[in-house]
Amino acid sequence: MEKDRVKKFRIKRWDPERASKPRWEEFTVSLDPFERLLDGLIRIKDNLDGSLTFRSSCAHGMCGSCAMKINGKNALACQTLAKNTPEVVVLEPLPAFPVIKDLVVDMDPFFEKIGRIMPWLLEDGPPPERERTQSPEEMKKILDAIKCIMCGCCTSACPVYRAGKDLYLGPASLVKAARFIFDSRDAGWEERLEMVSGKNGIWRCHSIYNCYEVCPRSIDVTGIISRLKRMSVKKMLLPPRRPG
């Protein structure tokens, strides 16, 4: 191996069905500067340890499958180039979600919360003969939210979600809600806005910006939630009062 291309992968591994706690394992691989960390993981699995478990699908930053914690920050392994990482690369599963094995986490709680906001177009009246059209100005209102690939990076990085994950909808769910609330073609925006304005929705967001910093699609997550807050205030859907 050429010394300047050697990467040491330090991976947090755990099979909850067989071990009571995680362990760390190290693997050394050679990566070209413009190869991705995902390439390194595949190389480890193919040549060094076939039991290493991680998710991947499109490998082009479109599906979000390979989201993980990379050197302390949530990111996609397929988007992270070797040249942009130190000699030692530390990989962990996404925080806040139950570990299934190694770098694979259970995303069911994440998708269950997204399901609560009814992530589909709600119709009012019979469907049109052709598609439902929008003006370019109307489209711009939802363009940022549409980019979400539901990788879970933002939700996993949110300290409010980690503190109350059984309650808080989380940033990804709120972005998905905004995608329909601001959609001129949707008839259920008032119902969704009332839903996300409850005690476990937008008012739990403290504008910490962790979500924005880790989003692989550079979505202004905090800005979108702020738009929802302003809209809620206009509709008199104010934050729930704290007891006492």
Q: Choose one word for the global shape.
A: elongated
The main β sheet shows up as:
5 strands, mixed
How far the N terminus sits from the C terminus, by CA atoms, comes to: 65 Å
Helix-residue proportion: 25-40%
Number of domains: 2
Question: What does this protein structure show overall?
Answer:
The protein has 244 residues and is an alpha+beta fold. The protein has two domains: 3-105, Beta-grasp domain (Ubiquitin-like (UB roll), Roll), CATH 3.10.20.30; 108-234, Fumarate Reductase Iron-sulfur Protein, Chain B, domain 2 (Orthogonal Bundle). 32% of the residues lie in helices and 14% in strands. The chain is built from nine helices and seven strands; from the N terminus they run ββαβββββαααααααα. The strands form two sheets. A five-stranded mixed sheet has the order 2-1-5-3-4. Strands 6-7 form a two-stranded antiparallel sheet. Helix 2 runs parallel beside helix 6 (171-181) and helix 3 runs antiparallel to helix 6.
Q: What characteristics describe this protein?
A:
5-stranded mixed beta sheet; 9 helices; Ubiquitin-like (UB roll); alpha+beta; 244 residues; 2 domains; elongated; Fumarate Reductase Iron-sulfur Protein, Chain B, domain 2
Task: Give the gist of this structure.
The chain has 244 residues and is of the alpha+beta class.
